[in-house]
Amino acid sequence: MDIRILDDADAVAEEAAARVSARIVARPDAAIAVPTGLTPVGMYRRLVDAHRAGRVDLGQVRWFALDEFLGVPASHPGSFRRWLMERLILPAGLSAERLCSLRGDAPDPVAEAAAYEARIRDAGGLELAVLGLGRNGHLAFNEPGTGPDSAAGPRLLTAATREANAYLFADGEVPTHGFSMGLGGLAAARRLLLLATGTSKAATVRLMTERSTSVSACPAALLRDHPDAVVLLDAEAAALLDGD
Fold first, then answer.
1. Catalytic residue status for 165
2. Is 4 helix (H, G, I), strand (E, B) or coil?
3. 15, 51, 67, 234: the active-site residue
């Protein structure tokens, strides 16, 4: 796990966008898994700007959403597909077909998850998975207790995860379950790139880097043994690593 400590959240966004762009230049039709949340917003803004300026072509990439809320249609304001459409796909002028996502309102969630994994395989596997870091160490919607070889499928969400996503639901009714790529699928990605910023992530960053921490206890510990995993931190998120 290659840990890079940068000055602030803007520097993390800049470096993340540069690394994603580099992979796209190397493989324009790459399959790339992408997160939602507050942390990657700056990265998406920079990627869109680079696309508009002609420095990188986002239009051939197969974008795959990491997760989705179960029971939430794509048109819902809280849908992660809608979130990514509004911050990446539409601003870059890309076709909606470039974004693959789990259908939150699929009648058979298990079949939907299996079909999603098949689409990733058909795309040649994930060239890169960009990840955020949950305060409890979750990756996508893989909460603590999820097995390291888990497949894509429905996930029971913790209270902390639901609270972190409450801003997406005006009525305060955050779904109790989500869909997610599995930890096994993320481990199979050729490259992993995790972004974490702010003091609220510092304790989790320290936990995921400790050799004694299991993936079951902290899913983000998955990055420790991945052959090509980079972690981008701002100074605040890295504060508890000082002196190690």
1. no
2. strand
3. 67
